[in-house]
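Appendix B. Extra example for self-study. Work through it before the problem class; the solution is given directly after the inputs so you can check yourself.
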Amino acid sequence: MRLIIDTDTGIDDAQALLMAFNCPDVEVVAITTCHGNVDVEQINLNVLRVLKTVDRFDVPVFGGCKASLVGDRKTSAHYHGLDGLGDAPDAHAPPADLIHGEHAVHALVRMANENPGEYTLVCLAPLTNIALAMRLDPGFSKNLKGCYIMGGNYEGKGNITSCAEFNFHTDPEAADVVLREMTCEVTVVGWELCLKAAFSWDWYEKFISQESPSANFMRRIEGSTIDNYYSNDAKLKEGVTKYTTADQLAMAVCLCSSLVENKFECLASVSLSDGITRGQMIPDARGRAMMHAKPEQRCVVVTNIKQAL
Amino acid sequence: MRLIIDTDTGIDDAQALLMAFNCPDVEVVAITTCHGNVDVEQINLNVLRVLKTVDRFDVPVFGGCKASLVGDRKTSAHYHGLDGLGDAPDAHAPPADLIHGEHAVHALVRMANENPGEYTLVCLAPLTNIALAMRLDPGFSKNLKGCYIMGGNYEGKGNITSCAEFNFHTDPEAADVVLREMTCEVTVVGWELCLKAAFSWDWYEKFISQESPSANFMRRIEGSTIDNYYSNDAKLKEGVTKYTTADQLAMAVCLCSSLVENKFECLASVSLSDGITRGQMIPDARGRAMMHAKPEQRCVVVTNIKQAL
Amino acid sequence: MRLIIDTDTGIDDAQALLMAFNCPDVEVVAITTCHGNVDVEQINLNVLRVLKTVDRFDVPVFGGCKASLVGDRKTSAHYHGLDGLGDAPDAHAPPADLIHGEHAVHALVRMANENPGEYTLVCLAPLTNIALAMRLDPGFSKNLKGCYIMGGNYEGKGNITSCAEFNFHTDPEAADVVLREMTCEVTVVGWELCLKAAFSWDWYEKFISQESPSANFMRRIEGSTIDNYYSNDAKLKEGVTKYTTADQLAMAVCLCSSLVENKFECLASVSLSDGITRGQMIPDARGRAMMHAKPEQRCVVVTNIKQAL
Amino acid sequence: MRLIIDTDTGIDDAQALLMAFNCPDVEVVAITTCHGNVDVEQINLNVLRVLKTVDRFDVPVFGGCKASLVGDRKTSAHYHGLDGLGDAPDAHAPPADLIHGEHAVHALVRMANENPGEYTLVCLAPLTNIALAMRLDPGFSKNLKGCYIMGGNYEGKGNITSCAEFNFHTDPEAADVVLREMTCEVTVVGWELCLKAAFSWDWYEKFISQESPSANFMRRIEGSTIDNYYSNDAKLKEGVTKYTTADQLAMAVCLCSSLVENKFECLASVSLSDGITRGQMIPDARGRAMMHAKPEQRCVVVTNIKQAL
Ligand SMILES: [Ca+2]
Ligand SMILES: [Ca+2]
Ligand SMILES: [Ca+2]
Ligand SMILES: [Ca+2]
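Solution. Structure tokens for the complete assembly:
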């Protein structure tokens, strides 16, 4: 399996990247970056720190879009720390000039054209780069083997607003373009699945206490987030009884499709109105349009994974 | 239990009304009508036919609003038949002049003021009358004992559009006013619960085959709908493997609160945008506003009922 | 000419009311109040102060709606003072119990039914009461002789937002119902006309310096607004080179139709979206729908008045 | 003056291109194409026919975007004919392979980077290419000398809907990005100016009767449009008493800035809601934000040109 990973490397992206690098039979062909958790310049640096952790500077990193399709970029820097990686800086972090000169959108279009049907795209960020690649090259998505998306929802449950998940809310127009127009197989890991598939804190303690470069890195960057958000606030801790993953879950579904226990097909789009539902994913699984939809118009939405994870 | 029932009598309203009339210890104080399934004039006639079935012309019927708050009334006449009751006319139907002269909105305000804390309101139609009563008398809802609403949804699943349930979609602005401003206890029976609590066709066959004036009436008015929508279309029948109730379910929850197995509290509002989500109910159960909400600002949403029904 | 005036008495409403009372051959039949510049309770008191000024307590005042059709009432208390009349209180102001017990909406419906074709309605406030009267009695507007509205715009120029005028923005849904459904002749005095028909400050000085109970009252209530907004801020004064009237202008057009120099007919509606245009009036003067519209569906929009005013 | 022209060559674009080619001291550096009046493939062919008319195949043509930022492309093929140029085909039309291989968006970014501050961009089409160039290269607009846009409106008057002009309505999101984010001087020629600056039919008769390759070409492609829309329909002709230009007017303002008689500065954006105002330009000339806006955030909107044209 040959992956191109589009990311706005926060903490969960970092872990998802490490999962991919540590998985046998998986080749990470390239990493593209997109605005999201923090500025794209910081995200570029964050990706390089992940590469350093696994000593894989051979994988090219392409810097991508700095703003959503229609602007008004929001960041969630408060959650993943000001630098998106828990504000646990590395004095010997790799420098920005390791980022390739080619723009992420161009690189995506070029790679897909060079090896049609070869690459699986894993999207862990707002979908700005992907939508632009589709606009610049209408044949882009046809050249992909498949696409896994962390983002959206299928029961209207949001995390950044009542109705919307962060990645989709940050660029609803891009998400809408990708869901409606992509012609390769698209698999969506939405926010409700993240909630359902959350881990116990006991499990997390064991997981994060392993000894390996990757686990050490995660422990380092995730420490203050866990402290800030859960440990110190009794009431919040009570409410957040689980360790919820997002990008990791999408990566797991990509790397190991047998994890999927339930899923459904639908025509998906995104609410683009200015009102409260802006950014909500709309999965039409039953309407007349869906009945007559061609396979390449449909998305697969995962609704349950095996507990064995 | 003393009920005021607001209805746009279609077939499911008719059955819900019959349930109330046949329930011991329940007094139906008044019936108010609202545009919805068909024109309010036809709905008035339909209510009278239900009263005739149970011989209860002593219950006053007040005619209500002919259009939603902002106009653009949609009807679903295609589903419940052109007359809303399966196009199975009664040659001896009661005449329209049995409807009271007082407008439904005035009657609602007057009755609630005459006996504060006494009446439970059961809403089986678009919420136009109720929202107007609240606008004309800001103290209206405080005077109610409680309010049960058939309408809306809590996972974004619609029946009239991808995102919206019929009653809420027909008057989203009214539904929004009611959910956000009502201060008595509000219990919502939304579309997802209707889907979950659907009956098998076997059960339905037994149910509809009883011998009683009410069952005879239902068999008569529901016959062609069942035929038109399910029996004659193999593919559709395959999809619709259950007999789904709506107004009946809300009435059941009102009449027998012990049926409720699961529910949650939330701040609820309705998407009023012009886009695809128009009419969708937005249940905010986790946000900061909810955490600080007063009890009278919250709604109860039922998510499961006991299978014993 | 027999007028019913619906008002949210701020300063410009007060002046418009005085114009009507001082105009020969005009009978003010009733005044209805609506939320808007300030709370409806304060507005009721403000109207009574105007009645006191002209000693006309014989004119009945009916209190109306406290919130817009869909809620979220905004007030402009900052502009007309905290009490809507320049914070220049009258120690001997008439008490609230002079307001009639009947609700404004009921009174509107009743009066129009009692004397069909007799009354001209002048709307100087958000249109909540009027829209509700139309919903409760679909024949309401047919019973009016005509209707003059201060509100909206025809070139998208707003005063409370970029796109919307205050009265329409405060209750866009009500404005939409009134413009689309009213069947008597409707004349709109929008914000662009107010800007065009503004007076020089020199004119205003002469006008406000007259000696009469009405002028004395106006001088008293408008003093601080003029000071606060124009006199003390050189930059703002530079920009606001004119004395702009709003409700006065609508009243003038009603009282003296020969003032109108230019106007056009259109199908009018109001933008109800959540975005930047919310509350903007949309005058369709050229589309296919307009070509085929019946006279009673059209509105008249005034675009120029004679300078002689 | 060195121009890059972005066009969806319909008839008015064709004439605007001819104006540029026939103007001394003007160099047309490149032409980029965008979906709009018809498919971009057809537009490419149409541009080549214009180049043939003036024998200027030396000017490179770059094919651009096939759909608006968020999809849902509308075409106005009915107005400019099925082929966008009046359905008056040329048996010896130049073939598509004269179009360059580089994508318009790449070409725009590349050229602006190669000669910063050198090129003036004239936009006669939906703004998809331009918005994408700005997303891919945030410094793109800073590298331009200036930008002239045919599109939008400043009094809410539309031609394709009540509120929206065709170019902006076809890609509202792109227009919003360009107006809000472009940092070079932007001059907007909106629909109200087109209406104001329309020519008499007498003038048009003289104009179109000239003898030159360009006039011959225009006569040929515009003939059937004039016939279809005006000559044959007495009622319509009555309404359309003028020959209205659009792209030609924007080109004229660009080529000859002394034509401008009135203009104003504003912060401009575009209504992106799903409602009736979608695509309307919102010129904020008076709000607080405008008062504090930096020069590079502002747009210039032309409101009058000299009659001498
Ligand atoms: Ca991410
Ligand atoms: Ca019903
Ligand atoms: Ca007023
Ligand atoms: Ca054009």
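Self-check: Residues B 7-8, 10, 12-13, 36, 124-125, 247 surround calcium ion (ligand 2) (CB under 6 Å). If your reasoning did not lead you there, revisit section 3.
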